[in-house]
Amino acid sequence: MPTTIQLDATQPTDVEKAAGLLRAGHLVAVPTETVYGLAADASNDQAVRKVFGAKQRPVGHPLIVHLASPGRISLWVDPVPQNAMDLIQAFWPGPLTLLLPKKPGVSDFITGGNPGVAVRMPSHPATLAIMDTLGRDLVAPSANPYGRISPTTAEHVLAGLSGKIDAVVDGGDCSVGIESTIVDLTGDTPVIARPGHVAQNDIEACLGTTLAPGQGVNQAVPGSVKRHYQPVTPTVGVASERMTRLLPELTPTGEKVGVIWWHSPPGERAYESIMLSADPHEYARMLYTAMHAIDTTTVDRIVIELPPREKRWLAVHDRLTRACTEQFA
Length: 329
Ligand code: TXA
Ligand code: MG
Fold this sequence. Notes:
The protein is of the alpha/beta class. It has helices at 12-23, 45-55, 82-91, 108-111, 125-134, 154-161, 200-207, 243-249, 280-295, 314-323, and strands at residues 5-8, 28-30, 37-41, 64-66, 96-101, 116-120, 138-139, 167-170, 181-184, 191-194, 235-239, 257-261, 272-275, 301-306, 326-328. Pfam families: Sua5_C, Sua5_yciO_yrdC.
């Protein structure tokens, strides 16, 4: 079991240290704009395999390859279609992952044996600097134990993976707060395989095409299981307009309930309360941090007030559906 050391993203010597550990085949959690990633040298199969052990993630769930520059895509993808170039031009570096035909020779440990490989260029300067120093690309799933809430701070990473990874690079709070949008470009038409900060409208505007409606939760993405992103505490979702009536029912005498409010003022029945935001991006930025915070209190149950069922809340609802064991929509 390694002792997990803490590195500081603002210190060049720590960036060097992180790159050195990765070069030696060790696991280092790194900040990205979406969530913290559990990084390993993508060119080292032994290092890639360690990722599955540390996260307790089933082998066969493929990993996203993180690139230091758009040009490195040709090491992993062949051919690179024009629509991929257009999306890269518009959204990289940033929270957009592209699923593309893999180049022969790309490791099955990375792709789970799929014909496609997922690639993205993150925007956090420290992680870009680490990759530049290393001169290689990184696989990086979210740095949480399998099925649990993704980490948006270095403390979250340590709470879940301390002793299982070699280092965490503290780069502050993640600015997006939920995982990247995944667009599958391997079929006849682009498909959003995982909704995120980059919305369907943004993709459509860039490509000049309309994507089929209702896409967004594609079970074809292997890690896209229904129960995911879950707090340890039992968690239910309740539609905003049903909160007043249902909260007392969901609060049996003697039980402590923690509520994550959408943006209504906290009600007095809750033992712990966190208020999020009426803005979907701001809500997404705060969501996992709120879930981690309330999950570490002594509450017996978590109630999440659900935002409206509108298109702009799609990415948030995708995560809430998986986080909650039950929803009263
Ligand atoms: O924002 C993000 O994407 C974060 C940060 C760290 O970059 N990473 C992340 O990785 O969310 P992970 O492993 O937690 O989720 C990646 C998703 C999984 O659902 C996986 O199945 C899918 O991407 N995926 C990766 N490679 C794939 C492939 N070759 N074929 C199909 N799905 C793939
Ligand atoms: Mg994940």
